[in-house]
Write a structure and sequence with these properties.
Blueprint (H helix, E strand, L loop, with lengths): L10 E6 L4 E4 L2 E7 L6 E3 L5 E6 L2 H14 L1
Antiparallel strand pairs: 1-5, 2-3, 3-4
Amino acid sequence: LCGRVLLRDQSLSTSGALGQFVTARGRPVGHLLDPRTGLPVVAEPLAALSVLAPDAALGDALSTAFMVQG
């Protein structure tokens, strides 16, 4: 999908496994690690997740955390 997001005084952060995964035991495994287990996050069902936040650091932290939670 293509589109535009107009931002003013906020950030858009995206975390995901699109193109950044390997297949292990027939399942796509992403590059993000779950800090609870130390294991890679399985890339499905979420291929990517985006977050709007007031600043980039918070947006990056939230998008990664939400991606790990599934």
